[in-house]
Amino acid sequence: MLLLIEQVLNGLQYGVMLFLMAAGLTLVFGVMGLINLAHGSLYMVGAFAAAAVAGATGSFLLALAAALAAAAAAGAIVELTVIRRLYDRDHLDQVLATFALILIFSEGTRYFFGSFPLYLDIPAYLSGPVTLPGGILYPTYRLALIGVGLLVSLGLYLLIARTRLGVRIRAGAQDREMIAALGVDISKLYTLVFALGAALAGLAGALVGAIQSVQVGMGEPVLIVAFVVIVIGGIGSVKGAFVGALMVGLTDRLGGLFLPAIFRLFMDGSAAQATGSALASMLIYILMAGVLIWRPQGLYGARA
Amino acid sequence: MIPERWLNGAILLGMLAVPLWAWADGAPFTITLATKVAILALAGVGLNIALGLGGLVSLGHAVFFGLGGYAMGILASHAQSFVPLAETPFLIEGTKSMPVIWLVAVVVSALAALMIGLLCLRTSGVYFIMITLAFGQMFYYFAISWPRYGGEDGLSIYVRNSFPGLNTLDPIQFFGICFAALAAALWLHGRLIASPFGLALNAARQSPARVETIGLSPFRLRLTAFVISGAITGLAGALFADLNRFVSPTMFSWQLSGEIIIFIILGGIGRLYGPVVGAALFVTLEHVLGGFSEFWQVYLGALLLAVVLVARGGLIGLVAGRERPHE
Amino acid sequence: MSEPVLEVQGLTKHFGAVTACERVSLDLRPGEIHAVIGPNGAGKSTLIAQICGGLRPDAGQVKFLGEDVTALDTRARARMGLARTFQISALAMEDTVLQNAILGALGARGGTPGFLGRALKDKGLREAAEAALTRVGLNDVAATRTAELSHGQRRQLEVAVALTLRPRAFVMDEPMAGMGSEGSARLTRFLSELRHEAPILLVEHDMDAVFALADRLSVLVYGRIIATGSVAEIRANRQVRQAYLGEER
Fold this sequence. Notes:
The structure holds 3 protein chains of 3 kinds.
Chain A: H1 2-32, H2 39-57, H3 60-81, H4 91-113, E1 129-132, E2 136-139, H5 140-162, H6 164-174, H7 176-181, H8 186-209, H9 219-233, H10 238-264, H11 269-280, H12 283-294
Antiparallel strand pairs in A: 1-2
Helix pairs in contact in A: 1-5, 1-6, 1-8, 1-9, 1-10, 2-3, 2-4, 2-8, 2-9, 3-8, 5-6, 9-10, 9-12, 10-11
Chain B: H1 4-25, H2 28-53, H3 62-81, H4 98-120, H5 125-145, E1 155-156, H6 171-194, H7 196-206, H8 208-213, H9 218-244, E2 246-247, H10 254-267, H11 274-292, H12 296-309, H13 314-320
Antiparallel strand pairs in B: 1-2
Helix pairs in contact in B: 1-2, 1-6, 2-6, 2-9, 2-10, 2-11, 3-4, 3-9, 4-9, 6-7, 7-9, 10-11, 11-12
Chain C: E1 6-15, E2 18-28, E3 33-37, H1 44-52, E4 59-64, E5 67-68, H2 74-80, E6 82-85, H3 97-109, H4 123-136, H5 151-164, E7 169-173, H6 181-194, E8 200-203, H7 207-213, E9 216-221, E10 224-229, H8 231-236, H9 238-248
Parallel strand pairs in C: 3-8, 3-9, 6-7, 7-8
Antiparallel strand pairs in C: 1-2, 1-4, 4-5, 9-10
Helix pairs in contact in C: 3-4, 3-5, 4-5
């Protein structure tokens, strides 16, 4: 039971971090019609910026600010130099150009920071466990991640629902010609949306970087899981990305707990562990396949 | 501008001449590089049938490459340890025979392509790209967490598998096998392009509504192309594993899926021989640039960006000019 | 009176709160051209999609050759001999004119297209395709890339592809759109003959062509057919003049 609650919390923590990744991807797709493989690189940029600043100043909050700034700046630069040439290209060109950006970002980061992983320390006030109701010990930092993730999600919701920028983003997602006709400076809006998505990815990279290591190539596995989230939630839907992210986070963590246990019922211990964890690693993809069979356009996607 | 047909002949001749010259010169490493080019080009030809002809941007073709590799790895590892794969319901033993391994690699990849295609082809556009990428990752993680066949460390095979009548340990003879497979796949792709099937598939890429109103199913055409495509890439995977005498989960990685697409783009999309030129360029860059910089992929990234943004015809497009309608 | 080839009864389609098609009934008899006219947004495209199988109606029935085909998809209806042309050309633009026509012939042949034969060297396919191109007057541009054709020529190619299917009925969505007056007159003469091979349900904006060709006319306004009759009857119909002709003239 304790283990279950712990894994539910882990699933939530994983889910909200996935949402920070997926939100940017789905916004960029919804508003600009672009598939961006280099989104994982922005996650990595955030993590490296945080590790570098934390190493120099010792301040975790400064590190987070640096992650946001660096990822947003990297996003804006990339949008201005490369991405904006891709909006009216087909998806194949977008895939290839952003794949090229991954190569450039990864190798560039390796050139400056080397191939060895960096470590980003959890600040003292968030380290150690906290006692939850019911006597469960849970790492404070992970709990903080859930809190930050939910706060940022709420902020994003308010931004899109309540602000003038949000109105433009929604208009852009629905009708691209319309928004240009309204006299909105569309290229500025695009840069802004892209930088916003990048900042969210960078924040996620920095936050997760403190519980994993900060290294080249850390972004792409997360990126691909974020794709799974978007496919489940429906491309272009921020709400779908949120629901999808929590579903994927919980499925992954609970699957890792339950599948080996289930297999232990009719197999011996080590074989059950091996089979169970091998299948658990496939579970989110099976979830995605199930959603595809049931609703090919995703949970909140517009009907194609 | 040089006619594409002549250029294609020159490309094939070049693919033969370089290793033969290396053989006469006693440079087995060059032959190995040429073999690698032939195998990667074969994987590219496989993807090109789905991508070039069918317009299916699959970012998960490493699945089939990896399945082909593991078909070889699993069969050969059982043969070298003399432990059968299965005893019930009937005895299945490992094998070191290339033709048998190829057959298994092709059948397994084709079945996987059928399953993945049935799911992915329900969608199109960006969804298709993301989903194929995701399924690739699924196989990658499965291979890592399945300890039976080496898990993350992969599987080593001590001696290259055998082919009746040939000495596969001789680099030039193994190159010959891979080159023959590549030539056969190019021939098949050429026939497919000109065939009624190719005509219909190509039309389904440009105007699916048209294909429906003449009574054909774009879905079935695409699925068929995807299965043929997966099978050829699977064969390439089996040969690649034999070249290295090693398989590991990296054969399933998303980077590899991306690289297979890069071969096609560098050579020139929609070109029959695009993957051959692209793979040759890729291996050459890897070898030459990798020689003086650890960070050679930065240059690859810059080159790729330039091709996508500026020179969309790829290398063949630069030399042969604009593509003409297929004849 | 002979049996209708195509018969639509009580076809109804809603999109949310919008009724795009309300209890539409019409039929197409052998040897006739039945034109459907109506202002923009009247629901002509929705009607065509339901007749050809692209959209499932909420209520009503489509009968083709005496069979209820309401539940069949586009492909099944095409294989029964229902040929449609598109308002916005749906051709393989990178391919040649001949290849587009051969695609049609391939559909008419049925079964799975072959893998190793050569489509352009297949005598049966090629003859059927060339015959259709000759009939619409495109034989001298057979080797041209479709993207290089004029708008009018693309409309002709649409008709040629439909011809290769040797259909039992045609559904044509604005075949005259974007044509010059000369091309439009030529196509009018051609369709006038074609109706004896298979009847044509003609959705068209070009009023001169419609009045010259149609045996019967149906007027579609806001998803409903407000009148059906001969050209003279429709011209005389007050309701029609108000709802439609009055706006244009």
